[in-house]
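ARCHIVE CARD
Drawer: 12
Card no.: 0347
Subject: one protein chain, sequence and derived structure
Cross-reference: see card 0346
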Amino acid sequence: MYIYNVTINIEESKNDEWLDWMKNEHIPEMLATGKFSKALMSKVLVDEEMGGITYSVQYTTDSKETLEKYYKEDAEQLRAKSNRFAGHFVAFRTELEVISEQ
């Protein structure tokens, strides 16, 4: 199992609009690709020097191959939809391989 983790820091002035968009549009669209079985959104409870509010969204997928299919088939189109918040957020992405779940 793999987790595609996206960490986002959003300006406080855009937080409510962005959060609504994430919960009601973006995450459902990510799940609708059929490449992720679930999504977990968490607020990071560490204050950032740069300000803003930081979130982590973890999308669970069955394999590295499925994640690669997402990159090829869906990522560009879905990421482009975040342009409405351009200049108001920073994001970085990591891939995690689940070693153990208890």
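Annotation on reverse: The beta strands are 2-10, 38-43, 53-61, 89-97. The chain has a mean pLDDT of 95.
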